[in-house]
Write a structure and sequence with these properties.
The structure is a single chain. Strands 1, 2, 3, 4, 5, 6, 7 and 8 form an eight-stranded mixed beta sheet that branches. The protein has four helices and eight strands, in the order H-E-E-E-E-H-E-E-E-E-H-H. The protein has helices spanning 2-23, 83-98, 165-184, 187-194, and strands at 52-55, 60-61, 69-71, 74-76, 100-102, 108-122, 127-140, 146-160. It is elongated. The protein has 196 residues and is an alpha/beta fold. The protein has a single domain, classed as Rossmann fold, CATH 3.40.50.10610.
Length: 196
C-alpha cells in the first residue's frame, strides 16, 4: 500500500512540475520602459567652480533585436523607437546630477550607444531569468577626435517560481542602473571631461 501511495505522490509531483513549467512565465506582447534607479545623488564639483559643459546627442540603439524580453518563441517589445530617447534622457540626467551642464556649446561631446538590453527567460522550477545591459560611450573633442571610449555592462540572474512582467521590468531597470553606476564612477571619464 505504501508503494502505491509513493507512486501517486511521484505522479502528483510530476504533474505539478509540468504545470509550473507551462504557467510559471506570464508574458505580454508589449512591455513598458522600466524605471532605472538613479546612480548619482549629488554634484562632484565645488559650487565655486565654473560650469562644466558637455553635449549628449541621441544615443544609437545598436541592439540586435527590438524586444526586451525573450521566452521560447515569444517576445515582449517596448514602445516603438523608445529606447534611444529614453536612455539619452536618463544618461543626461545622471550627468546633470554630477554637476555638468548639457549644452551644444560644450567642448566635449559624449556619443553613446545601447549595445544590449534584454532579459532571457528559461523553463524550469524555479524559472530562471537572465538580464543583460551594455552601453558604450565615446568622448569627442571639438575637432571630432575621440579622447576617451569605454564600454559598461552588467548581467543579473534571478530565479522565481512564477515570473511576471513586473519582475522582468524591474530586472531590466536594476541591470541598466548598475551600468550607469559604473559610468558615473568612471574616474578616467570624469578626468577627460574636466581636464583634472
Amino acid at each position: 500500500m505504501s508503494l502505491i501511495k509513493n507512486i501517486k505522490l511521484v505522479l502528483l509531483l510530476l504533474f505539478f512540475l509540468a504545470s509550473c513549467t507551462n504557467y510559471s512565465v506570464k508574458m505580454d506582447p508589449q512591455i513598458a520602459l522600466p524605471e532605472i534607479p538613479r546612480a548619482n545623488y549629488g554634484s562632484i564639483f565645488p559650487l565655486s567652480e565654473d560650469p562644466h559643459l558637455v553635449f549628449i546627442p541621441p544615443f544609437l540603439d545598436l541592439r540586435v533585436l527590438e524586444p526586451l524580453v525573450f521566452y521560447k518563441l515569444k517576445a515582449s517589445k517596448p514602445p516603438l523607437y523608445s529606447i534611444s530617447p529614453y536612455i539619452t534622457n536618463v544618461v543626461s540626467n545622471e550627468f546633470r546630477s554630477m554637476g555638468f551642464f548639457i549644452s551644444k556649446k560644450a567642448k566635449y561631446t559624449i556619443r553613446g550607444s545601447v549595445d544590449e538590453w534584454k532579459v532571457d527567460l528559461f523553463d524550469g522550477v524555479p524559472v530562471k531569468a537572465k538580464a543583460y545591459s551594455q552601453i558604450s560611450l565615446q568622448v569627442l573633442d571639438e575637432r571630432g577626435l575621440i579622447m576617451y571610449e569605454a564600454m559598461y555592462k552588467n548581467n543579473l540572474t534571478a530565479e522565481k517560481m512564477i515570473i511576471e512582467m513586473p519582475d522582468v521590468n524591474k530586472m531590466l531597470g536594476v541591470s541598466m542602473g548598475k551600468v550607469l553606476k559604473k559610468v558615473v564612477m568612471d574616474k578616467e571619464l570624469v578626468r577627460v571631461l574636466t581636464g583634472k
